[in-house]
Structures are given as structure tokens and as C-alpha cells.
Design goal:
single chain, 72 residues, alpha+beta
Length: 72
Amino acid sequence: MLKDTKVKGLKVGKDLGIISHNDDNVKEIIFDGITTFSIDFAEMGRLAAEFVLSLNPVKHVMENKLIRRNSL
């Protein structure tokens, strides 16, 4: 989609909006920033480690966060 946008001369955030799932560092950089919605992977890792160490089941709903960047 991003390649097609570039080929057609469209401007992300002006001519069209893009939102992606699961944030990572590259999404901060490409096309001046892609908006994402994602869970906190550090928190998920902490909860997984807690389970491994204690063997107590973890029931936790991971909250999604919107990270708004220039693609919207």
C-alpha cells in the first residue's frame, strides 16, 4: 500500500490515512510516522515472566493504545 501511494504521488496523512496494528520502531520513521494501535509488549513480557516464576495463572486483558503519528 505504501509503495502504491508513492507511485501514485499521494501524500500519506493528507490524501489518505493509514493505521497499522502492532507498533515497532520502524513505524516511527517510514512516511514520517505511521499511526498504530498496539498493546504494551513490555507489560506483556512482565506478566509472562511473573507466570513463569510463580506458576500462578495470569488473567489480564491487555489494553490497546493508539499511537497517533502523521499518517492520520
